[in-house]
Amino acid sequence: MNNKILKIRLAKLSDQKYWDEYVLNHSKGSPYHLFAWKKAVESSYKHPTFYLMAIKDRKIVGVLPFVNIRILPFINNMVSLPFCDIGCCLADNLEIQDFLIYQAIQLKKSVKAYSLNFRGKLYHNTEMHLQLEELNTGKVRMILDLPDSADKLLSSFKSKLRSQVRKAEKNGVTFRWGSLPDMDAAYNVFSRNMRELGSPVHSKFFLKAVLMNYGDRAKLGLAQFQGKTIGMGIILLGGEGVSIPWASTLRDYNRLGPNMLLYLNFLQYSADNGYSFFDFGRSSEGEGTYKFKKQWGAFPKPLVWYEYIGNGKDENKPSSTDSRKREIAAAIWQKLPLGVANTIGPHIRKYISL
User: Which superkingdom does the taxonomy of this entry point to (predicted)?
Assistant: First the structure.
């Protein structure tokens, strides 16, 4: 075999070190691209994963991770990547990106998936890119550029924001870093909040699997009041940036400002440890979460996703009534006892790729 020829193959467990090195050194790499996401999804939700690697001169020159979300005959989609906002193709150049997308289309056909879903910006106007439909997500990622120290970060905040943070501390709310034994208390907060939002909750095992597989690249933060955990958040550390997939507080204690204290500590840690930006995650412009993130200085970045169907017919396209159905489902879910929601929720949530 001529090792100068570009080839594509599926990543194996033994490739994790080299995969992660490539992701961490790529300018568009995110924590979700890391091999740990694959292992957490596989171990907790049992979804098949297909992590494509492009190799040239015995080096990785591109990666494209996919998870197959399926419950036949109702759902069968390939998603890059589920349960997060980004996770699409990383490549050294346009040619490699196109080659990876071409192989992904062949993979779609082999598993008879309805669609390929790409979450993340691609190089534009390539032959393969033009075969994809760019989706109007209506969402933005909220990104905060970080200074090189927590002190500089704090001094950059407006006085109103600093007073809100101080309010939480004056109210007796404290922050500490947690670990796996703290997950029961953290999950109590997380699951209650998701039930109140009318949304099925991720399984506790999935959150634990994320912490275990990411190791030092995952941090669990806890906000506490009088010894009780009233807020939680998990941050994931990538090459240049930090992402926050989950954060929740107990509504009965929101007047004390636990959310402000959580995010302050996450941002300070990120700045002090040399990360250049903090990704607050997905929001809709003008909504409450958008305003919360914007007050920290975050700016909106359009969230670009793509889809490939291939047969001109998408059986999973949302209809005009889907929004109303979701509202009804959320209202019903909010009325469920917490134990019931926590038992049923993870079995539903594993098939919701957003």
Answer: Bacteria
